[in-house]
Amino acid sequence: MLNILVLNGPNLNMLGQREPALYGTQTLDDIIKELRERARSLAARIEHVQSNDEGVLVAQLQASQKKFDGIILNPAAYTHTSVALRDALQTITVPCVEVHLTNTAAREEFRRFSLTAGACLGQIMGFGAFGYHLALIALVNYLKSALKSGQSAR
Ligand code: DQA
Fold first, then answer.
1. Which of 71, 111, 115, 132 sits at 20 to 30 Å (Cα–Cα) from 95?
2. What is the pTM assigned to this prediction?
């Protein structure tokens, strides 16, 4: 069983009410419920944490080193501002996939650059909540091929 941490940043707790034309009508609970079902079908287990606090997100990344095989991270607004999250990602060796509900490359200039993506395995954006499923499929595939070839996924 693969253990995956799903980490969501600020304002994602407001999904469902937050700019639904952009972010959709599903709540974060709805999204995570469906993702847990997907995880089961992939022989993975999800632990989910959402926080509006940068320090909590940093602490979660640091603690992931011992507990998780992989991470799915939507840093939300901290994507574009947080050197601390970038440094935390570079400190750990747990592979991470960055997810964005929206295609940030097609939005305001300040959203086009991600400080965190360069410390991740890859990035998926623009597909709404389905992006979390794409990230999970990609991460599980990466972890299983690393296991099969006898290499460490880290
Ligand atoms: C977001 C994109 C960010 O620019 C924004 O600050 C968010 C959500 C997304 O999932 O599309 O809060 O990460």
1. 111
2. 0.97
User: What CA–CA distance (Å, rounded) separates 65 from 4?
Assistant: 11
What is the per-residue DSSP string for 62-92? HHHHHH-SEEEEE-GGGGGT-HHHHHHHHH-
Cβ burial, residue 152 (10 Å; 0-12/13-18/19+): exposed
Is the pLDDT reported for residue 153 higher than 80?
no
The CA-atom distances, in angstroms, between 96 and each of 21, 24, 26, 70, 154 are 28, 24, 24, 6, 10
Q: Identify the CATH class of 2-148.
A: alpha beta
| Catalytic-residue membership of 23 | yes
Which atom belonging to ligand 1 lies closest to the Cα atom of 77?
A: 6
| Cβ atoms 95, 77 nearer than 8 A | no
Cα 47 to averaged position of ligand 1 atoms, centre (Å): 21
Q: How many CA atoms lie within 13 A of 110 on its CB side?
A: 6
* pLDDT confidence bin for 152, thresholds 50/70/90: confident
State the number of CA atoms in the 13 A half-sphere of 137 facing the CB.
7
